[in-house]
Structure prediction request, 542 residues.
Amino acid sequence: MQADYVIVGAGSAGCVLANRLTEDPATRVILIEAGGRDWNSLIHIPAGFMKLLDHPSLTWGFKAEADPGTNGRAIPYPRGRVLGGSSSINGLIYIRGQPEDFDHWAQLGNRGWGWDDVLPYFKLAENWQGEASEPHGSGGFLTTAPMSERPAACRAIIAAAQELGLEYRADVNDLPPGAGDSIGWCQQTRGGRRRASTARTYLKPATKRPNLQVITGALVHRVMFDGTRATGVEFSRNGGAGSSIERADAACEVILAAGAVGSPHLLQLSGVGDPEVLTKAGVSVRHALPGVGKNFQDHYIARMSCEVRGIETLNERGRGLSFAGEVLRYLASGTGMLTYSASLCAASVKVLEESATPDVQCVFAPASYKPGLIRVLDDKPGITGGPWQMRPLSRGYVLVRSPDPREQPAINPRYLAEDTDRRAMVGGLKFLRRLFAAPSLAKYVVAEKMPGPGVQSDDELLDYARQNGSTVYHASCSCMMGSHPMSVVDSELKVHGLDALRVIDASIMPAVSSTNTNAPTIMIAEKGAAMIKAATRQRLAA
Prediction:
């Protein structure tokens, strides 16, 4: 089979690319996804994400390596394996990040990636459901929405934050450069009662076009080359060891959009990467590029929860007859707790003296949970807050371990490896304690449940974070953009030293964005598609 473009990965970026590139009816695209169709009903119910993070067929089932940053724990590392990728299993939060994030990308030498450059692509993507405002777009494919319900527990959290001096921002995505500490309601990738994954918003309308072919249940083994030119990919259906190998040829380009784990792994399987890493894994070196899989970043969160009294939380609404009522409410009107995202409000605060802008993001939910990855509600009413270091200095790796594409690569973000990140985590937990003690919340708080009053010193708080923290699912930077020796792609997202091969997903970030990464990933894909179209126009005009 052959097309102009072969895209590997139908996730947050791949679905965007498939849509935008096939807008030209003369452009043929093959989109290859390892997972299946997004038919599971839990994908489309917003609160269904609570049941998806360890789903045996909708995720890759990855685990990060045991590391000192997690007290030697090998923590689960969920990544979506289904049409829509992680946009089909995530917590639906749509927050773009600080303008300084993207200006920093440009300052690192990536021309065209500053805030003023990327804002138009954020807006181009959006089909904003709130009141019309300058920071938002209304004609795009991605349905975004304000938080339609504002529970009393979250209103109390916002009031408590204001008592601590945080500014209330009515729109967390209308953030001017240089903004200080603030709190506001999260925004969602949701349209009415349904999750707005990229599969639903971008890919579904594009599948009606005859110039798009979508292949599911197909594991890509490697990129094929003719000299330095990428010519296509080899893949097998359903990942079986005995499956026959098929090939998809690309007349113009191969585009890797397999995410911050999948894209570097596939490059390495194809012989592109650090020769020492490839040789150790038994992979023949085709093109030495030492930065592939290096510089890997993620946000690390450790949650603090309190038992409360006198104010409603999801712990009561989520069980028994109350939950039955919530199900009926959702079915009848598309409202209620089943439309909630992972967090309902979020604060940006500065806890480190040396930071120029807020350095910790704290996300909040009107619920508390029993220990573990999968969110099981506590028996008693509770609220939860979780801080993460917005701009972690710790960097890890995604490294191939075997020529077998079915074997998971070594994944390690090296959480809390840097002192700055450790201090930020401790500072974030201390901020939460001040918040929970502010008058608007203190009157409801019965007791701190996690980590509990027995954990007081900085060392104790840090140890708690190491033992109980987890990923925020913001994998990034493993094929970082730049012009230095450890970069993988240039500012046009072309792989250094190779032709007709791009990487377009969260892996190209030179530094992780300060807040949730789904919105920036979709922006990257919008901008990447525009770059490809511009290059095509130049080629045809030549």
In short: The chain has a mean pLDDT of 96.
